[in-house]
From TrEMBL:
Protein name: ABC-2 type transport system ATP-binding protein
GO molecular function: ATP binding; ATP hydrolysis activity
PANTHER family assigned to the protein according to its UniProt record, in alphabetical order: ABC TRANSPORTER, ATP-BINDING PROTEIN
Domain ABC transporter stretches: 2-227
Pfam family, one: ABC_tran
Domain of life: Bacteria
Amino acid sequence: MIEVAHLTKHYGGRAAVDDISFTVPRGRVTGFLGPNGAGKSTTLRILLGLDRPDAGTALIDGKPYRDLRYPLHTVGALLDGPGSVPERRAVDHLTWIAQSNRIPRRRVHEVLDLVGLGGVAKQQVKKFSLGMGQRLGLAGALLGDPEILVLDEPINGLDPEGIRWVRTFLRGFAARGRTVLLSSHLMTEMADTADEVVVIARGRIAAHGRLDQITAGHPSLEHVFFALTGDQGPEW
Ligand SMILES: Nc1ncnc2c1ncn2[C@@H]1O[C@H](COP(=O)(O)OP(=O)(O)OP(=O)(O)O)[C@@H](O)[C@H]1O
């Protein structure tokens, strides 16, 4: 369970996130939606202990990320691609993370197979396409077999087959009682994947609730989104 309460963060006097509160329940895929600069990444970075809030809290299973005893076993994250040194081979990148977190080596091969990179495990990451890099990032997030996944734009760069694979994987992950928080710009994809949505605009929550309730009476999630955010959508 993820609980964000009264979270506030300013950069240079401007609020990137302004007193936002929402919860992310177990057993559901929760989509985190918002236009460019709305505050999604800021929220996720604070949640994962990569930045500090000015006020409020972002808790994972009741604790700030830095107080988690076994962070990789609790929450897997994908923020900015695979996070690997480009010269490193995929298998070595994951082995390095596994070893520093007391995760057995066999799990590296399990997650590589799981994300469809088993056949290219010995390739250098710099030879990977954007989509392969995203899969490697997801493999890293899954190493500790976490209960919670936090993914920032995980389908960026994926081809249609890759997008479908991520969707099916995340739906299955949540169906086993686990928790997914997923940010994306892609409305159609979000409408197909999420059970719950949190819409953020200009650092504030514009809507939060079940996807079917939020879209009721509207032709699509995209229509709701533009109505809520006042965004005309040219940059989407
Ligand atoms: N390290 C930083 N220093 C200064 N300003 C920042 C920093 N990080 C974010 N911001 C600003 O905070 C606001 C929110 O940015 P954030 O990256 O959280 O938005 P986002 O919703 O993730 O957008 P995008 O979809 O474009 O990634 C923006 O105005 C951004 O310019």
